[in-house]
Amino acid sequence: MSRHWSPIVHKLAPYTPGEQPQDRSYVKLNTNENPYPPSPRVAEALKNCDVDRLRLYPDPVSGGLIKAIATYFETTPERVFVGNGSDEVLAHCFNAFFCRDLPLLFPDITYSFYPVYCGLYGIEFRTIPLRDDFSIEVSDYTVANGGIIFPNPNAPTSRLVALAAIEQLCHWHADSVIVVDEAYIDFGGESAVPLTEKYDNLLVVQTFSKSRSLAGLRIGYAIGHPNLIEGLNRVKDSFNSYPLDALAQVAGIAAIEDLAYFEDRCRVIIESREALTSDLKGLGFEVLPSAANFVFARHPDAPAKTLYQALKDDGVLVRYFNKPRIDDHLRITVGTPAECRTLVEKLRTILNRA
Ligand SMILES: *Cc1c(COP(=O)(O)O)cnc(C)c1O
Predict the structure, then answer these.
(1) How far apart are the C-alpha atoms of 315 and 304, rounded to whole Å?
(2) What is the tens place of the pLDDT at every residue in 220-246?
(3) What is the arithmetic mean of pLDDT over 42-63?
């Protein structure tokens, strides 16, 4: 508490990111980072950067990167917005579209940054409970609202909503903006990007942090009708005109142009996820069907918090949420096959001990 804080700062409840401990090396399966390096073309592009040019401000509209993203999605640059990580893109969405008289809707179990942005921008919200099997049922979202947002697949549950259901939402709520946060869509889901050509109230947000192995560079983007993109640009240019630095723009272009590397790494992670799921089931875990680069699992005989702590003591980090409905679950990032094997062997030992 400080008497120098503005009234809104007193009331903020900030987001807590997953642990990034610096004290020792861990098998890090707690923040859904990609276990593989970015495309070799990224290293090449950064090596060729002229450091002298860092004197200059970067392109404020990230034109080259926007063009590369538009090409990847076979769309036009006026339908693309980029920001400093998708977290920043999402924050601008809340500011641009959700400050309304009616409440924003999102699931009760979801990305915990959403209520934080509501606090920052003074947005009223209403949470809609996931079904008992942790699925999002769009027919629960029929109430009047000032917007709808959810990740697809959802985090931390990893479950996917079908495109037909997303289309229903767009159709029912033509006066609201529907934001689909596709941070994990490349690991087996079908993107709603093509639907944005048909529905002017649908905005799809994606990131380079997970499937393109660039969490450290902070690149996120949104795709939707040019009117929505213009709304985001109005917020951006009222906040920070240069959200992406020059290196991020160059590296982002190299990453999205290397389609073969991207597709290959996603395929390997999906294969590892299926192997990890079956190994965990072999140890007695219940594992939700995942379309992401993580799994959400519970063991009927071992408290999640105990497993989390025992794994941490053993040098393996996973994510435990001390929250109602999910405090019996662990969220485990899919690592390399070797990392997954280490996790499974440590779990086997811990469970046998108990
Ligand atoms: C990781 C994640 C993001 C944030 O990604 P950045 O681009 O790194 O900011 C957004 N939404 C969800 C659901 C995520 O899990």
Answers:
(1) 16
(2) 999 999 999 999 999 999 999 999 999
(3) 97
DSSP class of residue 299 equals: B
- 67 with 211, same domain: the answer is yes
Domain membership flag for residue 1: no
DSSP, collapsed to helix, strand or coil, labels residue 314 as coil
**DSSP class of 283:** T
Entry pTM:
0.97
Q: Per the structure block, which two tokens stand in for 277?
A: 């799921």
Ligand 1: distance of its center to the CA of 113 in Å? 9
Within 10 angstroms of residue 257's Cβ, the number of other Cβ atoms is 16
Q: Summarize the confidence of residues 75-81 as an average pLDDT.
A: 98
**In sequence order, what are the residues at sequence separation of 6 or more whose Cβ sits closer than 8 angstroms to the Cβ of residue 205?**
86, 89, 90, 93, 179, 180, 181, 182, 183, 220, 221, 222
Nearest CA to ligand 1 atom 2: 183
CA atoms within 13 A on the CB side of 75: 20
Total domain count, the chain: 2
Q: What is the CATH number of the domain that holds 347?
A: 3.90.1150.10
Ligand 1 proximal residues by C-beta, below 6 Å: 32, 85-87, 111, 151, 155, 181, 183, 207, 209, 215, 220
pLDDT at 99 over 90: no
Over residues 117-175, the pLDDT tens digits come to: 999 999 999 999 999 999 999 999 999 999 999 999 999 999 999 999 999 999 999 99
Half-sphere exposure of 266 (CA within 13 A, CB side): 19
